[in-house]
Fold this sequence. Notes:
Strand content: 5-15%
Helix content: 25-40%
Oligomer: single chain
Amino acid sequence: xxxxxxxxxNKIANAANYGxxxxxxxxxxxxxxxxxxEPENTYPNTPWLPASGVQRGSLYTMPGAGDxxxxxxxxxxGMYRRPYNQxxxxxxxxxxxxxxxxxxxxxxxxxxxxxxxxxxxxDITYRLGPGFIDSDITVVVDVNNKLGVKPIYNVxxxxxxxxxxxxxxxxxxxxxxxxxxxxxxxxxxxxxxxxARVLGELKKSGWRPxxxxxxxxxxxxxxxxxxxxxxxxxxxxxxxxxxxxxLNTDTAVSGKYVLIASGSPLVKDTLLDFTKTVxxxxxxxxxxxxxxxxxxxxxxxxxxxRMWAT
Length: 310
């Protein structure tokens, strides 16, 4: 199955519902190597995914995320846990691979040709199956994942507010990642820890914020947004009464060309105002704001209502 259109977990669930006993997911160069899959057109020579690149991620599909054994309640000691076979875990084994490996399976596929909008950019005839051109071919999917329960930890730093200590401004990011996580989650972790350092220095000088600030480092995000979900479930009543805003720094940096933000429409004007005052560190003119530089670079192609917190 090709990545794209819908969440990978839903692909696996849909496949199982229609009788599949295992699944293989691959990233097509039409989506992830738009200059072509040749080495000179992919990483490290360009940002595009090389033929050996494998896209990993959770297949967890339970609404609301969190611990699949404690849906809707915090996964604390003493809480009732659903048995594994009653939890919404992936129903069949699945394995991801790069398009350099997937092509060997795809070019052997039988059945009718795929519709035009289903085809990728590999140099093959895309077919729907079922089965292979050679009926003697059998694919064996061997997945070595093991079910288990391990503790995860959230780290929360708090500076109490001067005037409204019962109103919370939260900023945070998860610290776990698939593989090395250079962008996700390390850029967000770098931003969050630097914010914590600056706030700590300000506090040493006698400063206190108007409202309480909570700096949050979440665990277990990649497996199903578990750390933050469980913390919210544990403090749901308190947060519904006291939280003002949450600022998410997950994948804070993935390039240097434009600022892209999303969130509640309530913060759109505030975000836009800040982009007028924050200087662009990459601009040749040290007086140029982020708004000015981004508008000059992308205005001909991207409407401002899409660039700023849609």
